[in-house]
């Protein structure tokens, strides 16, 4: 049941982000993909099945790997300027595995892991080659056939990751399960059709959405032993949505201010 739930959430996330790109532009699509649209519901499902401490450990492991997710997005955006999609994909995942492995091996204290995760999206946004393009509600053409291919690719990757995770050590399995599926699928389709600038805008938006992602897991990790599973889960979602909206509003104001001054 959990396997089917994960696949369904992956398909829904890729489809929703792609439809958002059609209407609102690349960076808005990326922001939706960066939110805990897959991980959040899965965590809720796990809270119904697993002890609180086990779910809390999963939340902390996710936070430990978050800087590697950000590095993946930044690496893809820069590599896309000089490489085709498959080259950028190889570079980005190489960076993700190397940094994720290093972070997982450090056994960081929870406070340090949370602090590093919270600072990673800000550093990632600053390191992107393009910042904030795509917030102008520009029309993005995505044919129906490509929508089907995007969902199919995401499902294939997700299934391979989840099935493969059971065959390896805990460290390798954790890295596989933390791999950004939508962060791999969406830019691979965006780059050949829309170019490197649009791809960077998509990934910039993805990193912006990670502010909500990291907030969800930090609040959940801190709240579970204090207020219990149900309330901590609800507070995590409220905090994530609030932070995501605040960051989106702030970046939109910055863009408008920059346009006015220009």
Count of all domains? 1
Low-confidence regions: 133-137
Kindly state the number of beta strands. Answer: 0
Residue share in helices?
Answer: over 70%
Taking all residues together, what is the mean pLDDT? 80
End-to-end Cα distance? 53 Å
How would you classify the helix and strand content by structural class? Answer: mainly alpha
The radius of gyration over CA amounts to 17 Å
Keywords:
single chain, 262 residues, mainly alpha, globular
Please give a structural write-up.
It is a single chain. The model is unreliable at 133-137 (pLDDT under 50). The protein is globular and about 45 Å long. It is mainly α and 262 residues long. The longest helix is centred in the C-terminal third of the chain and has 33 residues, at 229-261. The protein has helices at residues 2-24, 26-34, 39-49, 52-79, 85-106, 110-127, 144-165, 170-178, 181-194, 196-227, 229-261. The chain has one domain. Helix 1 packs antiparallel against helix 7 (144-165), helix 1 (2-24) packs parallel to helix 9 and helix 7 packs antiparallel against helix 9 (181-194).
Please summarize what this structure is.
By secondary structure, the chain is mainly α. The chain is built from eleven helices and no strands.
Topology:
Elements: H1 2-24, H2 26-34, H3 39-49, H4 52-79, H5 85-106, H6 110-127, H7 144-165, H8 170-178, H9 181-194, H10 196-227, H11 229-261
Helix pairs in contact: 1-2, 1-7, 1-9, 2-10, 4-5, 4-6, 4-10, 5-9, 6-10, 7-8, 7-9, 9-10, 10-11
């Amino acid at each position: 049941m959990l396997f089917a739930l994960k696949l369904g959430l992956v398909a829904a996330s890729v489809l929703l982000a792609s439809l958002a790109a059609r209407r609102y532009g690349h960076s808005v699509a990326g922001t939706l993909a960066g939110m805990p649209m897959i991980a959040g519901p899965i965590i809720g499902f796990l809270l119904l099945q697993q002890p609180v401490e086990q779910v809390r450990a999963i939340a902390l492991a996710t936070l430990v790997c978050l800087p590697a997710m950000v590095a993946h997005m930044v690496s893809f955006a820069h590599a896309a300027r000089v490489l085709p999609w498959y080259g950028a994909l190889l570079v980005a995942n190489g960076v993700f595995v190397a940094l994720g492995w290093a972070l997982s091996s450090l056994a960081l204290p929870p406070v340090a892991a949370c602090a590093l995760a919270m600072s990673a999206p800000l550093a990632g946004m600053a390191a992107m080659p393009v910042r904030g393009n795509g917030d102008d509600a520009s029309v993005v053409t995505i044919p129906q056939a490509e929508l089907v291919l995007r969902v199919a690719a995401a499902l294939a990757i997700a299934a391979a990751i989840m099935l493969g995770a059971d065959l390896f050590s805990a460290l390798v399995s954790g890295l596989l399960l933390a791999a950004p599926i939508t962060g791999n699928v969406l830019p691979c389709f965006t780059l050949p059709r829309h170019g490197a600038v649009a791809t960077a805008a998509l990934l910039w938006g993805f990193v912006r959405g990670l502010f909500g992602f990291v907030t969800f897991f930090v609040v959940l990790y801190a709240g579970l032993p204090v207020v219990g599973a149900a309330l901590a889960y609800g507070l995590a979602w409220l905090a994530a949505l609030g932070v995501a909206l605040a960051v989106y509003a702030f970046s939109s104001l910055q863009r408008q201010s920059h346009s006015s001054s220009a």
